[in-house]
Amino acid sequence: MVKAEAVHKHFGPVQVLKGIDLEVRSGEVFCIVGPSGSGKSTFLRCINHLEKINAGRLYVDGTLVGYREKNGKLHELRDREVAEQRRGIGMVFQRFNLFPHMTAVENVMEAPVQVKGVSKKEARERAEQLLDRVGLGDKKANYPAQLSGGQQQRVAIARALAMDPKLMLFDEPTSALDPELVGEVLDVMRDLARDGMTMVVVTHEMGFAREVGDSLVFMDDGVVVESGNPRDVLGNPQHERTKSFLSKVL
Ligand code: ADP
Ligand code: MG
């Protein structure tokens, strides 16, 4: 579902991704862990072309992200084509980014109506189903300010699912939550994984990574230091940098 080959990204003189190689298989939960500033968010943003890579190749579902290759040369896609690619990818951030002036159900139906041209009636029905699915059947008419952080994050997940993505990207989805609200969001993600969604999850929740993750990479300073089965990498890290990071977070 995702393939990165020697992905490089710099911001001015700052090299942030220094050759990322990895493969996310369809249907798996792929966790990315690593210290702050190691390039995790930047890498996620490259997957949906919110950031443009400077070298290497990045594919989603077999298609080059953001570019077309012709006679060995890369040509950047038009905005409309990039938007088309992004439509297949749902993203959930640390901050929930809900529209504050819209209710939960309106937040979830917005993109299908505006972007896909789905009728309001159909979009509302689907949005209600999705809110039921994330356990918010009784909060459909609430505005974000009337929801807890965990509830808002579950609305954000429902909103991403409303576009029927083939891939979901999560960037520290529980980091901004009070500790007692983390579990309800992880439960929704666990359900999603059980249903076979392909997920790339940047997280500091090592318990989640170990239980739900199928693969895990440890990133540091723009490279993948170590990768494998989450239980192996977390339980028996091979590299000094991984050991040192884990000793601080576990
Ligand atoms: P992580 O998510 O692992 O904490 P990030 O991908 O957010 O790391 O950031 C990696 C590095 O890239 C940091 O040094 C950060 O300051 C830098 N960076 C990220 N985005 C930008 C940007 N838009 N412009 C300049 N530097 C950036
Ligand atoms: Mg980050």
TrEMBL record:
GO molecular function annotations of the record: ATP binding
Cellular localisation: Cell membrane
Start and end residues of each ABC transporter domain: 2-246
InterPro entries xrefs: AAA+_ATPase, ABC_ATPase_HisP-typ, ABC_transporter-like_ATP-bd, ABC_transporter-like_CS, MetN_ABC_transporter-like, P-loop_NTPase
Keyword Nucleotide-binding assigned: yes
Transport listed as a keyword: yes
One Pfam match: ABC_tran
Keywords associated with the record: Amino-acid transport, ATP-binding, Cell membrane, Membrane, Nucleotide-binding, Transport
Membrane topology recorded in Swiss-Prot or TrEMBL: Peripheral membrane protein
Membership in a protein family: Belongs to the ABC transporter superfamily.
Protein name: Amino acid ABC transporter ATP-binding protein
Organism annotation: Streptomyces albiaxialis
